[in-house]
Write the structure tokens for this entry.
Amino acid sequence: MRPLDWIVLITALVSMVLYGLYRGRGSNTVDRYLLAGKSMPWYAMALSIIATQASAVTFISTTGQSYVDGMRFVQAYFGLPIAMIVICATVVPIFHRARIYTAYEYLEQRFDSKTRTLASAIFLCQRGLSAGLTLYAPAIVLSVILGWPERTTTILMGTMVITYTVLGGIKAVTWSNVQQMYIIFLGLVVALVTVIMLMPASVSFGDAMFLAGAAGRLNAVTTHFDWNDRFNIWSGLIGSTFLFLSYFGCDQSQVQRYLTGRSIAQSRLSLLFTAVVKIPMQFFILFIGAMVFVFYLFVEPPVLFQRAELDRIRQVGAFQPMAEQYNQAFEHRRQAALALAEAHHARDSAAVGRRIAEYRAAQNEIDGARTQAAKLVERTGGEKDFSDTNYIFLSFVTSHLPAGIVGLIIAVIFAAAMSASSGEINSLATVTVVDLYRRYVRRTASDHHYLAASRWATLFWGVYAVTFAGWGSRLGSLIVAVNVVGSLFYGSLLGCFVLALAFRRVGGTATFIGMLAGEAAIFWAFLFTGMSYLWYNVIGCVAVVATALAITSLAPGAASTTPGMRQPG
Amino acid sequence: MPDEPPPFLGTWRRVYAAVLIILCLIIAACYLFTRAYQ
């Protein structure tokens, strides 16, 4: 980090906090603090939804994933527009008319208090863990760049987020998210342009695309079906539809964004805008990772991108021969890539065929050397199943980008982390106060009391997220970890809401038991099968609905809706 | 709370249809992109 980078980074961070505080003024009632007085326009909600979903993990891990595995992760978003349409047509008008603060309040209106409480508890467990991971990702950034301990940087990040979230409530969160998304969009464009400009003069943009494609890095769509394959078009269209139905229909961190809308139409527009923008945005981020791969065809990358582990295994005797093998493999690949680009230029298809075989063989050599290095890390006491995927993009940014742009990219990562984290903390506090505290502890208190309770709950969840951030280092690729954690809980929540909206005969007890069965089914799939996590949502949802319907058929007593509970409009 | 019409295309059904068409186009574009550089 050079002085200009520090200036850019500090300016961006300070402006984010100050802007959040400025826009959060006047949040002096519970309604304004938690729902912004239902005054938000669609574009602010849309950018806030995208920002909350696109955490720092998105930039750090997705680019790395594209580098090692290609762009097929984009398929995990194919179900998003389908899910958004279903949510707009069903959930959005019901939630707006029910005049609720949280999605789980609706479950008490429809079923009973125990179903609401179980759903709230599931959300708090799942989102609480994710909030930790959201803060952990930028901590990696500073630990790589400055050598600061991850714990220290997590606390610093958490303090900044907590400051404007506690003081300004959801207005501060939403409007700061808007500003953060502008920084993110700017940073993404600058990153892509810069990586393309850093390519050797003899390699055109078309050559770069060709080389990335020949190495399997532009595999945006894979059509073969495999239950155990995480990302293909089928798991994307079916599995991710269920994931996003759960995420945007049952997860308070998203529901709360669109509940702030000034009308049903504004909320719908925000979700549909997100549906249209999200896939191209994810494609763009993955494409940056693919271009970083091409850049490293010509500039030798370190055998491992995580410097601390690399420095450690350098001391081991087995490292030197492995490093020599890696250097040779890199030179083979570089020569093969240049020869392939030349054959591509000359439009000599026979030569292209030969060169592609050499190029892929050289790529396999590189992959083999990297695998050996990762095994060496494990053998010498390092992390089990070691992966440096999360360090690839950061290593590239700090080693090769010019002054100022490094600061901007780091600001992007911070902006993403802060936007996601503030949304999570805000929603966790809302559920804690509305669904637990106001429901079970203090049923009748003044608006001022609940406002104070909301601020304290926000502070609590901020500290909780910082504490749990330490768990991130034990997980592999972070973006997948976040989605896996979510998928362990989302299926049951989705099943519960499906029952609430589509099966009027089913009562609270049947739904409650169904949710427990759904969780059992998901954990069985997680622990005893190698199934892709995108399918957990389908399994959980189906298990909840099937169990509740079976109970309703066999025990009609459980089918009745709890007396006195109001049916939704 | 009244259900307002969308600001374009007249009805929400048409807006949803437009979003689905965009999804189909995006998937088709991604597929062609993959095939072109495979």
Q: What stands out?
A: Residues 10-38 of chain B form one domain. Residues 5 and 37 of chain B are 43 Å apart (CA to CA). Helices of chain B lie at 12-36.
